[in-house]
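anyone else get weird line breaks when pasting these?? whatever heres mine. first is seq + tokens for prot A
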Amino acid sequence: MLQRTNLIWLLGVLLLVRVIAMVVVPFADTTEPRYAEIARLMMTTNDWITPWFEPGVPFWGKPPLSFWAQAISFKLFGINEFAGRLPALLAFLATAWMLWRLAVGVVNTQVAAASLVVYGGMVLTFVAAGTVMTDPYLSLGTTWAMVGFYLAPKENVWYWRYGFFIGLGIGLLAKGPLALVISGAPIAVWVLLQGKLMFYLRSMPWIRGTLLTLVITLPWYILAELKTPGFINYFIVGEHFMRFVDPGWMGDLYGHAHKEPKGMIWLHWLGGSAPWGPLALLLLLGHLFKTSWRQTLWQAVKQPVVIYVLLWALVTPVFFTPAGNVIWTYALPSMPAFALLMGWAMVKLNNGERWRQLGFTLVMWFMPAAALVFSVVIANNNDLMKTEKRIAEYVAQQPQNGGHSNWSRLYYLGSDLEFSARFYSHDKAKPVQLDQLDNLAIQKQGIFVAVPTDQWETTVAHFGTRLQPRIENMRFKLAFLQP
């Protein structure tokens, strides 16, 4: 099963299933439709400096790289799920290519192929490869920085010599200063351990490279602060310091703190790296009691490239260990390094034992099989997810009345509006209070009202037969309210 041809076929299946899921799975609240709606607003307003959380409210939570990519994709391919997710897939493929180049450069093509199978077959990387969020671009930046730094002395080409600095620029525009830590810390430790400080000071284009990073990033940071003063303070102090040190940070303008026990990042890493991460842990624990295996492991760990990749894999979870405000996507930048280590180990352990080959085969096919089943189920029943796509599509398909566009006649009962409702209605759907419905129904000669399921009985009691039920999903019942 570990033959290179078989591994490449499996990579093709992984990619095909990922593309299918990108097309058929709707945006579900909250992350994907929130970021997709910000990108849609960027495209429709042609404001490429400030991402807008909603009209009139700037989004200071993240830099613009992902929104730029998604807005351009919407312009090229229309406003749909595939267009919103395509940039993340391209970022994943670019990251995978760099992982391949590093693996081929330091080991061989079989290990490279095995590493890509691991990388594409982990839960977190598979999800991130076609999801509207910022983390795939951070992972692309940090991977380019790490691979570029290691290969630059070996392959004197511009995309490695300046790759470290371009990668930092991408990371700074994707997530912010976190990219400097995730890339800089493992490199600094490794250089000092190898005693090669002067070598790298002489061999890397530090002055021109640093200027390149500044040219890539600094103009946007300056323009963003000038256009919406307060951005730098919120983004640097709030998002990067307070969010890290205060698990219950109340300063989040766009959501809420994800309060977790300290050290939770390791469980997030284990879940995100499944099924390969748990398998690696089992293999490690199962072999540590064998003297010969411990000696082999020790000899491997003494190799400079293994130390480099191991530091790269560890720095992200170690950095977030004292943080009490974490989510599982924070582990993503460590996954390429783990994939290389696991792919390498898998090839080494492929010693002909049939039970081990069977185990590897089952793990390899877990992700494409599970993702395909999930995609088929969701494609036939979107209401299993927290998405307002079906309601928005249903309203759009109804005959227009009174000259009003259907989406402008869609209201959600309550004070807040789900992000997926905003995205799928192109920001035409609005929240509404119960006492406002009568006037709106008269003005627009009838309106569509999405009523929370737990408020349906009281709403029916208020309006009687004027409220005509249509369809429902897992959160709302849609009705037409006659004037």
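and prot B, same format (seq, then tokens)
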Amino acid sequence: MHSIPIKDQIKEQKNKVKLGSPKIEIIAPCIINDGIIALNSDEQTRLIALFDECQKDLLFFIPASGSGSRMFDFLLSSDKDLENDPKVKLFLDNLCQFAFFDEQNKLLYDKWLKGHIKSKDLIQEVLGGDRGGFLKSPKGLIPFHQIDKVSLNAFQEHLLQGINLQTKVKYHFTIQESFKEEFLGSLRELNNLFKHDYEVEFSFQDQETDSFAFDQSFNLIKTDKEALLRRPAGHGALIENLVLLEDQYVLVKNIDNIQHLNRSDTSNDIWKLLCSILFEVKSKLRAIYINPQFEILQEFNKVYHLFTGQQLDTCHDAKSIKALLEKPLRVCGMVHNEGKAGGGPFFVRTEEGGVTKQIIEAVQVSQDKGQREQLELSTHFNPVMMVLDLFDFNDNKYDLKFFRNDDNYFVVNKKFEGKDISFIELPGLWNGAMYDWNTIFVEIPISTFTPVKTVLDLLGENHQPEQ
């Protein structure tokens, strides 16, 4: 993408905006025993034990550049009848339960209870007052939980949870470059508190992947400094960051999906399950790759649901079997969809007429009645935990860009200074950016999925310490 001249990038992106988000034909949702595997308790016990025996080098890859301001949107949009807004009332009534509630907040809260200050003024001060505070902070640096009366942010808690998984683990956070010093300061604070050195590295979303913004007449938009307006092209741009990693086994999880530390045992057990499945599957695939036999591949697939029947139909000889196997491998932890926005796992029709398993967002599905009905039949949500193997059978790193489908981009419509703008987001990290990967879907407990989209989510059970 970087080698394409600017004028050609603009022309290409304008055409894509005009066409809108491409639609993908879904055949059926992946469900338990048909695209998604479920593990019984004996299998879970075996896989956890296998992980504890293996102790391979692991790297957590955690996208952490997202802004925290959206967590507090409802507090900013309520000007009139502030106290009568049920969400605002819930926030104020439970203010002392949040990890960011400190001594200064307590003094203000006491004044508010006595009617000496207005709700709006209390909220403004809690969020950071004139300094901007949480409204200008990455979500990863906002305190989520308290451990032994110490407030910890999401960034710090990911480090603590990973160390409880195994001591031999590294971390890679993708952040905004302007906040690197704040993250480093947070890391030093954690080291001082818990006396442990964490192997942490940071990278930034490549600004050269940013998209050009267009108005409703498809004209480029300029900023007040006369520069062309550009917008980050979504988490799909992070495939560039994965390309630069030298690690083989990578564990992917969003920064806001973190439970209170003393409720994190289930998540760590699931990491062990997913990793062990990856190690075991890679070993079995390597054996088939070395000695390609269709019957053995068929039997393997009955257990893991890795390939569709149409994919197996392409295996006519040793060469075609090897071609099917020789791709990056991922194991995705999928939870039941309980009404949250987002996509899920589906069987989809490829441009060549075949069928593969993909993670599809709702915006990628047309309004055709049959397609919407298939969408409604979906039982599971986007992956909340993913384990990746980035190496081939000869222990060489795959060229990850080769397995991306650039036709799976998204057209995004947003506001800029009150005006409607449109721009392109690259194929999503677990959507088109990993389109041609070999993928196993595994059902995991809903308790592993506790995203903090709004500050009120922190009042949920999994964000509170166990009594």
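btw re prot B: The chain has two domains: 6-68+139-463, 70-136. The radius of gyration is 24 Å.
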